[in-house]
């Protein structure tokens, strides 16, 4: 008996040691606003502009959708004579098609960019792997076109930056079987230091050259200098989105369709008033949406409208007052924002109140930027707030079919991706919210 008691005592002691020394992950560390974030790790180091490594070949390669069945290939070269040409095909090393494009460069104070190329290729087959090279030079890249029907998966994250957290977030996204990457603003955090646009392009090339990245601008893309530099010069030069293809006159707001989803990318930092170009474009775009063909309707912008964090409180109120009634009338299913460096998901909400026909608002400004996390939330939690946590991570939105989608948010915890928030979402179309008697069509008429 004494021996058994000794053995039991030793076992209890060992278990106690393991519990005391085990890392605080998952439920042990709390979830949501109770989660305790580990200490930050090192940041990535990048060379200064005068030490930047030059290359004879294509750099900073990334791709984006460019209208139906077309893709835009973008890259930078140091060689000003490098041709704006993309060769591509469905077999490695065998390029059966080619397309020419455009190029530009820009100067920013003492910085001169490389030659920035944009080439649109297509028409392309859906759900197909293509191999391509830029300017008749290696290396060879490859990408997969999105499917033409459900299921469809988006990787979602904003406020990326260039830290070690950014690198692990991108690695976790790469483990996800996704079709497109959605980014609601704040990409490089260059903040006037133009060489950081180059290092950001190098950082994301392995991911952005293989799946289309659809982005909209944030405050860190403005980089305006009164009387010297207009805003968004660097962003517009490097990240050309399909604005013309969607009838927009500005690269700061546009829309696109993929499979059965219509996606609206809005600009929080360009005029959105009732007599603005963006407002007129938005209503015209929504008026053309066919919910039989695209039963899901998403919207992205940078500044969240529903935010219970102390950070950036109320900054989206003015835009919300003007634009939310339009999106509600159109039946937007989900609105995704960044800006606040934390995660939050709402219930369906409209005009500050729970509404079964309102949008679900998701804030994912937690990609891993150098400014750190927004750790303080308001208490008590608003009735519309379903889940919130101040942690780096990314989201995945899988549109399963015309009626159901699955959203999951994955905490970026010590190089591991932990699913912390999950929810099934029913489309507003399937819930009967788009019946004519429930919609105020005057809100989406083209004339204000």
From TrEMBL:
Catalytic activity: a phosphate monoester + H2O = an alcohol + phosphate
Leading EC class: hydrolase
Residues covered by the Calcineurin-like phosphoesterase domain: 153-343
EC number(s) given by UniProt: 3.1.3.2
All residue ranges annotated as the Purple acid phosphatase N-terminal domain in the record: 58-145
GO molecular function term, any single one: acid phosphatase activity
Residues annotated as signal peptide: 1-29
Family matches, as InterPro entries: Calcineurin-like_PHP (IPR004843), Metallo-depent_PP-like (IPR029052), MPP_PAP (IPR041792), PAPs-like (IPR039331), PAPs_C (IPR025733), PAPs_N (IPR015914), Purple_acid_Pase-like_N (IPR008963)
Domain spans labelled Purple acid phosphatase C-terminal: 359-417
Keyword terms: Glycoprotein, Hydrolase, Signal
Family: Belongs to the metallophosphoesterase superfamily. Purple acid phosphatase family.
PANTHER family in the cross-refs: ACID PHOSPHATASE RELATED, PURPLE ACID PHOSPHATASE 18
Protein name per UniProt: Purple acid phosphatase
Organism field: Dendrobium nobile
